[in-house]
Design brief:
Two copies of one chain form a homodimer. With about 200 residues, chain A is mainly α. Chain A contains eleven helices and no strands. The termini of chain A are far apart. Chain B binds a DNA duplex (30 and 30 nucleotides) through helix 1 and helix 3.
Chain lengths: ~200, ~200
DNA sequence: ATAATCTGGTACTAACTAGTACCAATGTCA
DNA sequence: TGACATTGGTACTAGTTAGTACCAGATTAT
């Protein structure tokens, strides 16, 4: 039970780094094997073929990237604080170098792997929308916010927070933003939002 | 002067369709030649090599996509009307199938062609931000808007308008939105924005 | 220790690729 | 019409790729 899992893990890790760096077509199984050690046979036994290996890599990375987002504190502080905290984590997760690299590859390979694209959206941004929507809904019920459409409001807020940072990062049109830049940016978006939504 | 240009045009058109459909690596010069007619020699004489052909295709598509955006009416109507009109054109241009396909390829090939990514951002979204910023700045000067930071406000507005539609489209996580959906979406974003920015 | 299973390494197949070379045919221009 | 440049088609080179086959050696369990 240990030998196989070790090999699987090593292959997955090597493939992850290589796919992130060179893309799907740019990564050959020879490269994966050279990095992970082992032989072609093991790869094909564990993952079926190259597509299977790629799908496994994406799934694995998604899990790891999203793990951080699921343990956020939604209770502590006023809405302004909570939304800033959540928003900061959201944008940080989106522009993290590994996340950007993953987005690039998945977007570039959407026509070959349509499911990976929808899966990525639903497990990432879509979930964030839903959670923020729930929070806003509670604020509306509690009378802290005007009676806005929670889902729409959540999307508008998060998109303002995301700003052009994500697209910029995807297109490589900028160096990674600093922590302070992110903070200022998020605060400003939350302020604009609360200006319209808070009672 | 005519024979050569004809061949160039035919090759460019064939290459455009094929790159959009199969991506950079997925398109071979044999496919381009089979579609355009002619011979390898002509391709190499006109475009140097495969990279040159790809760069030419992207430049050409960018020009054509952006041509529509540059002829908008910024004078007619109240801010609410103007911003809705501009915003609608903006989002329509972003989610148009050919634009989405182009974004996908460029994003997927950013590491191979870094310049194409930045060029795409600067000639597309960045220009829209600047133009809307100028408009907002004029409104601030005229007293129609509160004294907001025009550039920041423009970005927030356009990002709200863009919403999740672009990322969704890039990830193939949705069918193309209908005209009415877009209209409703843009109006709502403009309303939220004016709620915070208008005097 | 011995039998059964799994793995590493390598060799191989069949197919595809970008780019070069070359000649006959076609079109252009004087 | 005749000189000249351009183009089509094809063949070729050198390299790469995913996937298969196979055997000796390592690992595990009995």
């Amino acid at each position: 039970m240990s030998r196989g899992d070790d090999r699987r893990e090593a292959i997955l890790e090597a493939a992850t780094e290589l796919f992130l760096k060179h893309g799907y077509e740019g990564t050959s199984l020879d490269m994966v094997i050279a990095r992970a050690g082992g032989s072609r046979r093991t790869v094909y036994e564990r993952f079926g073929n190259k597509e299977g290996l790629f799908a496994a890599v994406v799934e694995d990375m998604l899990d790891k990237l999203l793990a951080k987002l699921s343990q956020l504190d939604w209770a502590e502080g006023a809405p302004q604080e909570v939304l800033t905290r959540i928003g900061t984590a959201f944008i940080r997760a989106l522009v993290a170098p590994r996340a950007v690299a993953l987005f690039r590859i998945v977007i570039g390979e959407v026509s070959r792997f349509p499911k990976l694209g929808t899966s990525m959206f639903e497990r990432g941004p879509e979930r964030a929308y839903a959670q923020v929507g729930k929070y806003i809904s509670a604020q509306v019920d509690g009378g802290t916010f005007k009676p806005v459409d929670p889902d729409l409001a959540a999307r508008q807020l998060l998109e303002m927070i995301k700003g052009d940072m994500h697209l910029r990062a995807l297109l490589g049109a900028r160096r990674a933003p600093s922590g302070k830049e992110i903070e200022r940016h998020v605060s400003s978006a939350v302020a604009t939002f609360l200006n319209g939504a808070a009672v």
